[in-house]
Amino acid sequence: MNIIPRPFETKVKDGNTCFSASTRVNCDFDIIKSELNFLDFEEGEVNDITFKIGETDFDYELTIDGDITVVAKTEEGLFHGCQTLKQLIFDGYRDGVATLENCVIKDKPRFPYRSFMLDIVRHFFDKEVIKGLIDILALVKINRFHLHLSDNQGYRVESTAFPALNEKANFRPGTKGDGVPVGGYLTKDDVREIVAYAGERFIEVVPEVDLPGHTLAFLLAMPELGCTGEQYTPTESYGIDDRILSAGNEKVYDFVEKLLTELSELFPSKYFHLGGDEVPKSQWRQCKKCQELMAKEGLNDCEELQGYFTNRVINILKSLGKTPIVWNEALYSGILDDSAICQYWSDGKKATAVRDALASGRKMYVSRTFPYYIDYPHGMNKLKSTYNFEPTSCFKGVSAENIDENIMGVECPLWTEWVADVDKLHCQAFPRTIAVAETGWSTPEKDYKDFEERLYNVLGMLEAYEIGYTHPKKANPNPFKALGETLSFLINMIEPAAIKSLINARDAKKGMKK
Q1: How many other β-carbons are positioned within 10 Å of the β-carbon of residue 201?
Q2: From 256's CA, which of 62, 271, 367, 451 has a CA 20 to 30 Å away?
């Protein structure tokens, strides 16, 4: 049956059932009624569809047999059943009436954490674009939306605590000299609308403020938070920057506490992402305040200083009732607070630190660069590779018990350095996000041909939502096209600032404790 993610158990029965304008919808939840009103239906056979809370060992059970019944323990389960039913209705829709195969579907997710990440910093995307993405994420049962809000190129949320962030830290005159201005931020009302819209669809919006690196935007607004106090200008380039927050300045911790408090009031998610990736420490090594703090706290090197910094921020989050998430580089200090969840994206070929952390009981989820970074061209991360990737394969030597208990799920990040418009955004996101959604929900068995056959029905639904995508054939380019896409991507990254970024990348890896 043309359903994505593939359900846990499907049994097809004899006969068909009609869904039409004559079908009576019995449901106490408005969001489910509105979700089913997505096509123009004509009158047809009179029958009933009933959504009800009841006992089941699954997330939901869907029965189609003349009438239609969805049973779940929770409203969220009913919503998931509704998304499955929507796909069946769309697949069977002809001339105003949908003909559905009689069947029983019993379904449940493999992982509890199924996530998509959008960077709205490098290029800004507004609330309407975000809500359009949420519609598709809900359709394929993704339940987390990771929103990257701060980086070197800007801070993208209205701040009344620090108005300078919006006045000085959200605009650049161009990108690599193209003269096309980039700016914008979400107002607090925008954020509330996005959070509410996602929440109605059982998607939790997880904010990220990257600390202590990727923080040039903060220094543009408040240079006193840096190690040098120097007034910087907005950067038109990407990559890793060595101008970061000072770990030895108490004003930084006051700033962080006020900013996180302000954001926590907007984002009710239990999770809060603190970044922690790609932190070159050349300024810390030259900073008197940072060196004095290291001596005072008995820290052996700047890697431990990052651990100290991150742990202080984690304590702030704990006081706000939040669970911290960090990129895997934050592990390398060796002193990271045990409560922090690790997002695994890049840890070398053997993933030593991440594997050791998992074995010791740390919670984590997988968004490994190859093949889950969907900002990369399809020639680098093909749809088939994205689909076939098994997230637990990175942890050889770790017990099955630890893997089952501590791997929370998967995420596909979409960074927007090279994604400047909505059409490009959609074509990068889909259908690879749909492939990751199936991995997050369905059992580990893979059959790409079967997946692609089912995929076309969902892509038709994207067209109905006016959401673009890359055709599966183009999403799996042949070797020659793949090489061309890869070379074009790498050539586009070449600029004078890239050399400095590579130097900073090497600096960021100094002192990592494997």
Answers
A1: 20
A2: 367
